[in-house]
Amino acid sequence: MSKVILQDTYPVFGRPRKAVEGVIEFIIKDRRGNVVDRIIERNIIKIFAKEMLAHRLPSSEYWDPLADSGSGAWVSTNNDPNEEFSARYILFGASFDSNGVPLDTNDTRYYTVDTVTGTVVPVRLGPGADFSGGLINAIPIAEPDRPLMKIENVSYNATYQPAGTPLLQSDVRAINNIVKFQTTLRLAEYNGFGLTSSDYFTITEVALAGGRKLSSVGTCELTPRELFLEGATAGGPLLCSANGSDTISLDPSVTEVDLVKKGDQIKIVGTSDTAGATDSIEQVTPYYLVLEKNVGGRDIQLDRVPVGSTNTAITGSIGIYRDTLRIFSHRILSAPVKKSADFEIDVIWSIIFN
Fold first, then answer.
1. Pairwise CA distance, residues 325 & 286, whole Å
2. The pLDDT of residue 250
3. How far is CA 298 from CA 232, 235, 245, 347, in A?
4. What does the pLDDT look like over 51-76, one tens digit per residue?
5. DSSP character at residue 135
6. Residue 207's closest CA among 79, 94, 59, 319?
7. Does residue 23 or residue 3 have the better pLDDT?
8. How far apart are CA 275 and CA 228, in angstroms?
9. Rounded to whole angstroms, how far apart are CA atoms 153 and 31?
10. In whole angstroms, what is the distance from residue 191 CA to residue 12 CA?
11. Other C-beta atoms within 10 Å of 97: how many?
């Protein structure tokens, strides 16, 4: 099975090279534990994969030849590899209307009719940050009926490089370049909105994501995008001031001065906006990358000047949330997977690093 995901180009021949590829497997079991269906899907790696890998690659220290009185020493980068950039969650979106009724392939957000064959096919996802980097129609999160699915098992498969007979060369060895993430949708989980006894979800999209570590999320019924926005401990955004430049400053009243760090992504909102509220500032995109932020400091340098939808620089009091959700991979299924109380589904996500 060919799975072209992130592509680079050979510098000489200009041919595509698969850098990261993988598959998603759904193992559907009945109440007795018998496997009734097995569905395998290709996936698409989003641009956030590069961000997540970039943050996991560096060491927490670098070599400073002038340290230790000139003899050299390892010193902190102040940019430790962050666990939030590791894959922790498998998120699900489903096809349902405003009343919670499943729409299946009739949902035009997910499926369209091929004009040549007349068959229903999934819409094409781009590799970028479509849908604000989130899901098209995320299942609201509220434990225990609609839980946030944490990664429940991680394993590795060995392969050999260079390819071919393993005993061909003395330097050939097994390497763990295939990682498998697994979680299970149990009988009592993800079974619709509780409107009738025959409720079910038609799961139409699935995503592998990183983010801050959450245990129980209670009954908040937020979408993943909202759930992973982190603000003031007392609630609401961190208060800041903007002066029309690419640097904003935390308000003197803010005590969580080190919540936002260099390399984070933040969302600029109104001072009274909640995590799930509509952006009251009216920006083209409210998300910004933090280029510089000193430990204990209040100035935050962004990748660009914050502007509104009319391209006018934002000034005055603003609020910010630290955004920790990063979707590594995102897939619309070729056909919806029905999940009701009659089925348990093992979801296995394999990522292959070539």
1. 15
2. 97
3. 14, 19, 15, 43
4. 778 877 888 888 999 999 999 999 88
5. -
6. 94
7. 23
8. 9
9. 22
10. 52
11. 11
- The candidate with the shortest Cα–Cα distance to 102, out of 90, 112, 110, is 110
DSSP state of 54: H
H-assigned helices in the chain: 48-56, 224-227
* Helix (H) / strand (E) containing 230: strand 229-230
> What distances in angstroms separate CA 139 from CA 100, 144, 204, 260, 261, one per listed residue?
10, 13, 10, 28, 30
Q: Please provide the distance, in angstroms rounded to a whole number, between the alpha carbons at the two ends of the chain.
A: 15
Q: How far apart (Å, rounded) are the C-alpha atoms in residues 296 and 250?
A: 11
Mean pLDDT, all residues of the chain: 83
Model confidence band, residue 81 (pLDDT cutoffs 50, 70, 90):
low
Q: What are phi and psi of 225, to 5 degrees?
A: -60, -40
Residue 82 is encoded by which pair of tokens? 């962050």
> What is the rounded distance in angstroms from the CA atom of residue 128 to the CA atom of residue 304?
19
Model pLDDT, residue 224? 85
Length of the chain in residues, anyone? 354
Q: What's the CA gap between 145 and 193, in Å, rounded?
A: 9
- Phi then psi for 157, rounded to 5 degrees? -110, 140
Token pair 């781009």: residue: 126
Q: pLDDT per residue over 242-296, tens digit each?
A: 999 999 999 999 999 999 988 889 999 999 998 877 778 888 889 999 999 998 9
Least confident of 124-138, 223-237, 261-275, 312-326: 124-138
Peptide bond into 144 cis (omega under 30): yes
Tokens of 231: 């603000």
Mean pLDDT of 200-215: 89
Tokens 């401990």 label which residue? 233
Q: Got the DSSP string for 168-206? A: SSTT-EEEEEEEEEEEEE-TTSS--SSSSTT--EEEEEE
- DSSP-derived 3-state class of residue 145: coil
The whole-number average pLDDT for the span 9-34 is 67
pLDDT 10s digits, 115-174:
899 899 998 876 555 566 678 888 888 776 777 789 999 998 877 655 555 555 666 667
CA distance 20 to 36: 30
